[in-house]
């Protein structure tokens, strides 16, 4: 079985892995510069890293966390659309819009972290997710 909506799902997974690599590539040198060692840290929390590392480094980590939150609903609803045979056409286009908006959100957060553009991108991506959810509901109920 093949559905066009699988492509944006894979694209967002790939983008999440790009953000993971970016986070590691900036965080490890910042930890070294701050005198932190993975070998000596015990049970640290995100707040500890926020206090110890520069904000610009943490923005990548925060965004990676965000890509583990709402997009999980995206993956689930896209799976429903694919399995119900309604993952092509407009639903695939909406899914691509969601992915594009999430990538833009990541770049805004990771590079400058301005709240207003981040909020606008988050709100627009949320509307795309609502549309996909409504279409999935129509398909299965």
UniProtKB/TrEMBL annotation:
SUPFAM superfamilies: MAPEG domain-like. InterPro entries: MAPEG-like_dom_sf, Membr-assoc_MAPEG. The chain crosses the membrane at residues 73-99, 119-140. It comes from Sphingomonas ginsenosidivorax. Signal peptide: none annotated. It is found in: Membrane. GO terms for cellular component: membrane. Keywords: Membrane, Transmembrane, Transmembrane helix. This is MAPEG family protein. The keyword Transmembrane applies. It holds the Pfam family MAPEG.
């Amino acid at each position: 079985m093949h559905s066009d909506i699988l492509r944006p799902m894979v694209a967002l997974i790939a983008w999440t892995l790009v953000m993971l690599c970016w986070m590691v590539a900036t965080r490890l040198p910042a930890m070294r510069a701050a005198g932190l060692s993975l070998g000596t840290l015990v049970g640290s929390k995100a707040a500890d890293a926020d206090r110890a590392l520069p904000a610009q480094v943490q923005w990548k980590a925060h965004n990676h966390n965000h890509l583990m939150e709402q997009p999980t609903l995206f993956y689930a609803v896209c799976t429903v659309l694919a399995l119900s045979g309604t993952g092509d056409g407009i639903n695939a286009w909406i899914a691509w819009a969601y992915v594009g908006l999430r990538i833009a959100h990541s770049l805004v957060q990771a590079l400058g972290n301005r709240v207003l553009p981040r909020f606008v991108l988050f709100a627009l991506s949320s509307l795309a997710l609502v549309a996909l959810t409504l279409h999935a509901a129509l398909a299965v109920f």
